[in-house]
Amino acid sequence: MSKKTDALRRFSGWVNGETAGHAAVRREAARIEHKKLLPELDEQQRIRLFSWQYKLVALVVCLTVVAVLLYTVFHLPLFGDPENPAVNEVVQRYVEDGLEETGAVNMVAGMILDYRAFDTFGESSVLFLAVTSVMMLLLRDARNIVRDEDVQEEHERVIERQTSDIILQKVTSLVMPCIMMFGAYVVLNGHISPGGGFSGGAVMGAGLILLGASFGIDKVRAFFTMKTFRRITSTALLCYAASKAYSFFTGANGLETGIPLGTPGAIFSSGLILVLDICVGLVVACTMYGFYVLFSRGEI
Amino acid sequence: MSIIFELLLILALIICAIAALGSRRLLVTVVIFMAYSLIMSIIWALLQSPDLAITEAAVGAGVTGILFFMTLKKIHALKGTKDE
What count of other Cβ atoms lies within 10 Å of the Cβ of residue A100? Predict the structure, then answer.
C-alpha cells in the first residue's frame, strides 16, 4: 500500500509540474513519515528498486507488443492482391451494383448509409451515449454544485472577460463562415463526393468550438443552448431510427422505400442517404461541441 | 519524387511519436500529438482516402487536442497560464 501511495504522490507531483526542489522536500517529508511507520525499511533504496523494476517491466511489455505487431504485419496479405480473403462476392456486389442500387456516386456513402445503415445507427447512438455519460458526470445542475467550483468559475469568467484576444477574434470572424460552409458542403455532398455525415459534422463541431473558444461560450449560447442541443440531437436520432430501425427485424435487409433514386451525381438523389447524412452530421456536430462545453464549463 | 515526400512524412510521424513520449511538459506533448494527427491526415490524403483525411484533420488535430487541453486545465497542469 505504501509503495502504491508513494508512486501516486510522485505521479501527481509530476503532473502538477513540481520542480525538483519541491519534490525533494516532499520526498523528505514522506521519508520521515514512513520512518515513523516502518522504521526498518530504507525508503530511498525502495524507490530506486521500484523505479528499476518499473522500467524493466515497461521495456519488456513494449518490446513484446512491438514484436507481435511487426510479426502480424509481415504475415498480412499484400495490399490489392486479388487472392485476398477480403475480395469476395460482397465487394463484387458493392462495386458492380452499388451505384445502381443505392444511387450514390460515393461508394463509401452507399455502403455505410444504405447497405449497412443499421451499423451507422449504432455508431450515432454510441456518440449520443458518450455525451450523455459526460453530462451525467460533469453537468452542473441543482444537485451537483460545489462552492469551490463556483468561486473558480467566477474567477475564470473574469479572466475570460479581461483577456479578449484581438488576433484570435479577427481571424475567427474571417475563417468561421468558411469552416461552417465547408462542413455543410461535406455533409450535403456526402453521397456525391468524399466525406459524409461524420466528417462534415466533425468540421462543423470544430467550428463551433473555435467560436466558443475565441468569443466566449456566452456568445454561442445566444443561438445554441441546452434546449437546442437536446432538440437537435434527439430529433436527428429519432429521424434516423424511424427510417432505419426496422432493419433490426428484417435481419439488416433494406426494404423498398419507394423514394426515387434520381440521377446519380445530382444533389437530390440516392433516396434516404442525404437525410441520414444530415442526421449523422447534426448528431456529430452537437456531440463535439457538447464535449467541449461540458469539459470546460460543465453546462451547455 | 512522391516516394521521397512520403518517406519524409513517415519519418516525421515517427519523430513526432517519440517526441510526444519524451517531452516532459504535458502541454507540449498535446501540441506534438496534434502535429502527428496533421501529418497523418496528409498521409491519408496521399493514400487516396480524402474522407478519412478530413475526419483526421478535424477530430485528431482539432477536437481531441482541445479536449486534452480542457482536461489539463481541469487538473491544473497547464503551466504559465493565468488560472494557475
Answer: 9
